[in-house]
Design goal:
383 residues; alpha/beta; 8-stranded parallel beta barrel; two-stranded antiparallel ribbon; 10 strands; globular
C-alpha cells in the first residue's frame, strides 16, 4: 500500500469524496459515523485519523478537532454543543431583492461613486480591519461609508467568504458584539462565514466547522440580519445534512456557495453544481442563491433557484488594473488594457459593472430548465 502524505494534499483528487468508493475500514467503529457518513475516497487510508498532522509527542498541542487528541476533540465538541446541526430557530428575516450582480470592492481605488451599482459587496476582512481592537466593535456605518466611498443609501452586501484568519476573528468576536456591528451597518444581506471543510483533515474538523456555520447563521438571523447560509460540504452526507437543516428551518430564504477554492476544479465544481441543483429540488421552495465564482454553471443554477445574485470582484480588479471588460454575444467576457487618468476610473468601473450585468442577462436568457436525473440524497447509512 502506498503511503499517503497527509500534508498539503487539499487539491489531490484521490482525497475527493466518491460515492462509488467503499467505506474506509476504520469508519465502521467510529461513534460519529451516522453524523459524518464516513470516508469514501480513493486514497489508501484506514480512516480520517490518518490526516492528523502531528507527531505523537505533539498531539496534545494540536488545534484540530482530531480523534487522536481526545481532550481537544471533546473541547471542540463542547464549544459548539456537539456535531448535530441543532441550533435554535431564528425569526424569519425577509431576503430583500438583490441585483443580479453585486460588485465586490476593497476600497475607493476603483472610483466608485454610487452608480450604477446601488448595492456593493464588502469583504469581512476589510470590515474587521476597521474595528478598534481595544474596544471590540466601535465602528459605525458612517465610518464605513467614508472608508469605501459609499452614500447613505448604498446597499451593502457583506461577503464573509475568505481566508481563515478573518473568519476565526469573527468567531472570536461573537461575544464581543461583532454581530451587532454587522447589524449596525444595515446590510441588505450577510453571507454566513464559510468556515473551511478541507479534504486533508480529520472529518471531525469538518463537523465542527459545519456546526459553526449553523451557529453563525442563527446568531445573525436572531439579530435581525438577512443572512445567507453558506452550504460548505465535502460529501453526500454533508449535503444531506444541509438539506435536512434547511427543511427544518423554513425561515432561511437564502444560501451561499463559492466555486473559487475547493470547487474550482472543473470536475469537483460539476459535482457541487449538481448538489446545489438537487438541494433546490429537495426543498421545493423559493430560495435565493448568493454565488461567488462558478460562472460556467450560471445557466443551470439560474434555472434551479428562484433568484441568483452573482458577487464578483472582477469589475473592481479590472478597473484598478485599467482593464476594460467586453462581453461577447455568447456571454463570454474578455478584458483589454485602456489608458485612463485616475479621475476617469469611476466611469470605467461603471462600464465594467454594466458589462458584467449584461453577461448575466445573456446567461439567464440561455438558462435551460433541464435538470440532472433525479437522484435521491443518500441516507446516512449509505454515505
Amino acid at each position: 500500500m502506498t503511503e499517503v502524505n497527509s500534508r498539503n494534499r487539499r487539491n489531490d483528487p484521490s482525497l475527493w469524496y466518491d460515492r462509488a468508493e467503499p467505506l474506509k475500514m476504520g469508519c465502521g467503529r467510529c461513534p460519529d459515523l451516522n453524523i459524518c457518513g464516513g470516508l469514501r475516497i480513493r486514497a489508501p487510508v484506514f480512516d480520517c485519523s490518518h490526516f492528523c498532522r502531528c507527531s505523537p509527542d505533539q498531539r496534545s498541542e494540536c488545534e484540530l478537532a482530531c480523534p487522536l487528541n481526545a481532550r481537544n476533540l471533546v473541547a471542540r465538541s463542547r464549544e459548539v454543543g456537539g456535531w448535530e446541526l441543532d441550533v435554535v430557530a431564528a425569526r424569519a428575516v425577509p431576503i430583500p431583492d438583490l441585483p443580479a450582480l453585486v460588485p465586490l470592492i476593497k476600497d475607493r481605488a476603483c472610483g466608485y461613486n454610487g452608480q450604477p451599482a446601488t448595492v456593493v459587496g464588502l469583504r469581512l476582512d476589510r470590515l474587521l480591519a476597521l474595528l478598534d481592537r481595544r474596544s471590540g466593535v466601535s465602528v459605525m456605518r458612517t465610518e464605513v461609508e467614508r472608508r469605501f466611498g459609499l452614500s447613505s443609501d448604498t446597499g451593502i452586501l457583506v461577503s464573509c467568504i475568505g481566508y481563515d484568519d478573518p473568519l476565526e476573528r469573527f468567531w472570536g468576536l461573537r461575544n464581543a458584539g461583532v454581530v451587532a456591528f454587522l447589524a449596525g451597518l444595515r446590510p441588505r444581506l450577510v453571507t454566513v462565514p464559510n468556515f473551511s471543510l478541507f479534504t486533508d483533515v480529520p472529518r471531525h474538523e469538518d463537523l465542527y466547522n459545519m456546526k459553526r456555520i449553523a451557529i453563525a447563521w442563527s446568531e445573525l438571523a436572531g439579530a435581525g440580519v438577512p443572512a445567507a447560509l453558506h452550504v460548505n460540504a465535502r460529501t453526500d452526507r454533508d449535503w444531506q445534512r444541509w438539506a435536512e437543516f434547511l427543511q427544518k428551518h423554513a425561515e432561511i430564504g437564502a444560501v451561499a456557495f463559492e466555486f473559487g477554492t475547493g470547487a474550482k476544479n472543473s470536475r469537483r465544481g460539476r459535482w457541487h453544481c449538481d448538489q446545489l441543483v438537487r438541494l433546490s429540488k429537495v426543498l421545493d421552495r423559493p430560495l435565493t442563491l448568493i454565488l461567488r465564482g462558478g460562472s460556467q454553471f450560471l445557466e443551470e443554477l439560474n434555472a434551479a433557484f428562484s433568484r441568483l445574485c452573482f458577487v464578483s470582484m472582477k469589475p473592481y480588479v479590472c478597473t484598478v488594473q485599467r482593464q476594460k471588460i467586453t462581453c461577447g454575444l455568447d456571454g463570454t467576457l474578455t478584458s483589454a488594457p485602456c489608458r485612463l487618468r485616475r479621475s476617469q476610473l469611476g466611469k470605467l468601473f461603471s462600464y465594467n459593472v454594466r458589462t458584467m450585468a449584461k453577461m448575466l442577462r445573456l446567461r439567464r436568457g440561455k438558462s435551460r430548465r433541464c435538470q440532472p436525473e433525479p437522484v435521491q440524497i443518500p441516507s446516512a447509512s449509505a454515505s
